[in-house]
UniProtKB/TrEMBL annotation:
InterPro entries assigned: DUF1853 (IPR015003)
The protein, known as: Type II citrate synthase
Superkingdom assignment: Bacteria
Pfam families listed in its UniProt record: DUF1853
Length: 252
């Protein structure tokens, strides 16, 4: 499908993060809310994570507060890769370098935990990996030795996306994850099992991966329930986002 980078970039620049508060986990995006019209086309990897990182790269570059944007910085030791940093940028106001890890994620609440569509992915596991593996890369001796110019660097995690609850199950919604406060404004999605989907009282339209961010358009196909197990992401006429999952989920 053709991607409207302007719509996607506007979503990234203006949508609140999954968390609120202060500290290494960003409570707001570092981007300008008003994005100039983008004329380029995206020809990279179609997976949503790669597209999101490309959008973040564009938005960092367009923000005059930042300069010297570097991305996908590899960190190696004895011929093996320790990991890679998403972004290192220079904040011209503070005159300091910043290490940013970025992710866009969609999680469904089930029995007190937030699962991704692929149930091996969970919000608590992702956050723990980011905090205890990805961000510490820029504090390592290998990083300081390889990039001495970036030795005095701050660390930041940007997580955007949407959190989904099942309105047909009575389950309390957690207010935090690993001690970090969730942003209630992002708990706006809904999900249900296929056997519950007849209870949805609106027409749904199927979303392709980039539309998980921005929502449906005039070309989106109408969702028709299937008897075969399926995992679909839809948006209703009123704008509500819905995941419909097989009855066996999360044990697929």
């Amino acid at each position: 499908m053709a991607m409207d980078l302007n719509t996607l970039a506007h979503w990234v620049s203006t949508t609140p993060t999954l968390f609120q508060g202060e500290g290494v986990v960003a409570a707001r995006t570092p981007f300008l809310p008003n994005v100039p019209i983008l004329k380029e086309e995206y020809r990279g990897n179609p997976r949503l994570g790669f597209l999101y990182q490309h959008l973040c790269s564009l938005l960092f570059t367009l923000n005059p507060t930042y300069s010297a944007v570097s991305e996908e910085i590899q960190l190696n030791e004895a011929g093996s890769t320790l990991g890679s940093l998403d972004f290192v940028i220079k904040n011209k106001r503070s005159q300091r370098y910043e290490h940013w890890e970025v992710a866009v994620k969609f999680y469904l609440l089930h029995q007190g935990l937030w699962y991704g569509p692929n149930a091996q992915d969970r919000l608590d596991l992702k956050l723990e990996h980011m905090l205890n593996h990805q961000l510490p890369l820029s504090q390592s001796a290998q990083f300081s030795d390889t990039y001495p110019l970036w030795r005095d660097i701050s660390r930041h995690l940007l997580m955007q996306g949407r959190l989904y609850v099942n309105p047909f199950h009575d389950e309390p919604v957690p207010s935090e994850c690993l001690g970090y406060q969730l942003n209630p404004s992002q708990i706006t999605g809904f999900w249900c099992y296929q056997s519950q989907s007849h209870q949805i009282d609106e027409t749904l339209f199927l979303l392709e991966k980039p539309q998980w961010i921005s929502g449906k358009n005039e070309h989106s196909a109408r969702y028709m329930a299937s008897k075969k197990p399926e995992f679909v992401h839809c948006q209703s006429d009123s704008g509500k986002f819905w995941f419909i999952v097989p009855d066996s989920w999360p044990q697929l």
